[in-house]
Write a structure and sequence with these properties.
Radius of gyration: 19 Å
Largest sheet: 4 strands, parallel
Strand order of the largest sheet: 2-1-3-4
Structural class: alpha/beta
Shape: globular
Distance between the termini: 32 Å
Helix content: 25-40%
């Protein structure tokens, strides 16, 4: 049930019967040379379509942008300031709260949004609400460890193949991942992580200084298949539809002073 498709009397009727809202938050950012910049929004949107087939929970319009400072140099990335992003999302959530929403299920497509969603959850808790943050790519790892992946790697590439295979430019996948080390002995292992003498440290660099491709992870994109993506998306969607039914039973705390 899509909020944007309903008249206001129908929205009013929904909130007289239910206080649960599902809202996706994504991003527009680099996901390697082979993937669309809308990856983190396209995947949640496809999950919403699958969830809608099994659940009557109200689905609010997707917030397509997120916080992406490390990927900002890549053409197409839209990086929203963290405070501005929080304030915008808060206005959206508080509007839904005024109309009757108390249980918010946030389908998150981007790791850079996590801190903002956590902050939103604590702010809404003071109003007697409960916020669940569902990071689909982490959930998929729990559902099948073989699906575990990084940024723009096999997991996300498979998901986009499951959305629309034409969105993946296989000619740009390339060979092995090459990371740019900090020194001969400080070896890059991820976006921020590096290893020195067997100990992991974090060194803050923009992504183009870590890899020229824009994808990072243990799961090479060339392992992705349409079948993997479709099965993974359906499994995650089925889980979320089931989770929301149980989430409706969660006890809400009394509104606290702000």
């Amino acid at each position: 049930m899509r909020l944007e498709h309903l008249t206001w009397p129908k929205v009013q009727a929904y909130f007289q019967e239910s206080d649960t809202v599902l809202i996706a938050i994504g991003s527009i950012e680099c996901h390697g040379r082979h993937m669309p910049v809308g990856t983190d929004t396209l995947i949640p949107n496809r999950l919403l379509e699958l969830i809608e087939e099994k659940s009557g929970v109200l689905i609010a319009p997707t917030i397509p942008y997120g916080v992406s400072p490390s990927l900002a140099p890549y053409p197409g990335t839209i990086d929203v300031d963290a405070e501005a992003f929080y304030q915008f999302c808060l206005q959206v959530f508080e509007s839904l709260y005024r109309h009757g929403a108390r249980r918010f299920v946030v389908l998150n497509g981007h790791g850079g949004n996590v801190k903002t969603i956590e902050r939103l959850g604590l702010a809404l808790e003071k109003k007697g609400c409960l916020v669940a943050m569902l990071n689909w790519w982490l959930m998929a790892w729990d559902m099948d460890p073989a699906w575990k992946g990084g940024h723009g790697g096999g997991e996300e590439t498979a998901a986009i193949l499951g959305v629309d295979p034409s969105l993946v430019d296989r000619s740009e996948i390339g060979g092995e991942l090459e990371l740019f080390d900090v020194t001969d002995r400080i070896k890059a292992t991820g976006f921020r992580s590096a290893s020195y003498r067997g100990v992991t440290v974090e060194i803050i660099r923009s992504t183009p200084r870590v890899t020229d491709s824009g994808w990072i992870g243990p799961d090479h994109p060339n392992t992705a298949t349409v079948e993997w993506g479709q099965r993974m998306l359906q499994t995650v969607a089925d889980y979320i539809a089931d989770f929301m039914e149980e989430f409706k039973k969660a006890e809400l705390q009394s509104k606290r002073g702000e």
